[in-house]
Amino acid sequence: MGESPNTMDDYMIMSERTARKNLYTLSRGVVETFGDVYLWKPLLHDLQELYVKHEERHGFPRMIGSIDCTHWKWKNCPVAWKGQYVSGHHGSPSLVLEAVASRDLWIWHAFFEVVGSNNDINVLDQSPIFDDLLNGKALDAPFTVNGNEYKYGYYLTNGIYPQYSTFVKAPPSGSKTRQFF
């Protein structure tokens, strides 16, 4: 609900320590219950299934998924932290979640910002999503489009993301063209 653990002190007659412990227990329960189905990195077989699903549904050949960030206003941000979580274009403290998920709710990448990161690019720069690629551990999932061989799939993004080889910008709204390569 966006409340800090301190808000539970009076309402639930619960200490901050107990509130944090319960939040941790709930989080572990979610991971243990849903982790095997919804919270894991794709394997080669999974990537190939994602390729097929995205091409059938959206007409994008070999797309891994869409990547984007969502910003949540943090109304109960502690006063001492506000300067670290306020960006110029939001004007109030917010948290940023970067995620990649498929239509069947398989969340295979989620990353919350670190202190001082208040926009999509700063979050991307610190996100572990490309660590395997940068460290040479990424799965080779080759494909060919228009006679060009590609080693890895790509993510569909909006216009704010940099010109990386793994990003393809979505066509403008209402556009009928889907020729990216």
Offer a quick outline of the entry:
The chain starts with 7 loop residues before the first helix and ends in a 12-residue tail after the last strand. With 181 residues, it is of the alpha/beta class.
Q: What is the helical fraction, as a range of percent?
A: 25-40%
What is the ordering of alpha helices and beta strands?
Answer: HHHEHEEHHEEEE
Number of structural domains: 2
Radius of gyration: 20 Å
| Spatial order of the strands forming the largest sheet | 3-2-1-6-7
Low-confidence stretches: none
| Residue share in β-strands | 15-25%
- Report the strand count: 7
Structural class: alpha/beta
| Apparent shape | globular
Q: What is the makeup of the main sheet?
A: 5 strands, mixed
Separate helix tally: 6
Mean pLDDT: 78
Strand and helix map with partners:
Elements: H1 8-11, H2 16-38, H3 44-58, E1 63-73, H4 82-85, E2 94-101, E3 107-112, H5 120-126, H6 131-134, E4 143-145, E5 148-150, E6 154-157, E7 167-169
Parallel strand pairs: 1-6, 6-7
Antiparallel strand pairs: 1-2, 2-3, 4-5
Relevant terms:
2 domains; alpha/beta; two-stranded antiparallel ribbon; 31% helix; five-stranded mixed β-sheet; 181 residues
